[in-house]
Design brief:
85 residues, alpha+beta, Alpha-Beta Plaits, 4-stranded antiparallel beta sheet, 2 helices, 24% helix, globular, Chaperone_NapD_NO3_reduct, Nitrate reductase NapAB chaperone NapD
């Protein structure tokens, strides 16, 4: 299960993009966080890498979005890695 921390940058202050933010909030795999200075923090927790990529692509194409920066990506494959493998 991929978990991604992303920063979405808008072309103007985030409060002018309430409709886009509401669309993001309606996606079960997305959790929205703080927004300020035209940037919105989101976390994407999807069941597959393919779904993760679909969400990233969709977010990049949303009205007012000019950039999506990756802050963190983690892949949980259900196994415990100890570093001894």
């Amino acid at each position: 299960m991929p978990v991604s921390g992303l920063v979405v940058t808008f072309n103007s202050p985030v409060d002018r993009h309430r409709e886009t933010i509401e669309l993001l909030e309606n996606v079960p795999e997305i959790e929205t966080g703080d927004f300020r200075n035209g940037k919105l923090a989101i976390v994407v927790d999807s069941p597959t890498r393919q779904r993760d990529q679909e969400i990233w692509d969709w977010v990049r194409q949303m009205p007012g979005v000019i950039d999506v920066a990756v802050a963190f990506v983690g892949f949980d494959d259900g196994q415990i890695h100890t570093g001894d493998e």
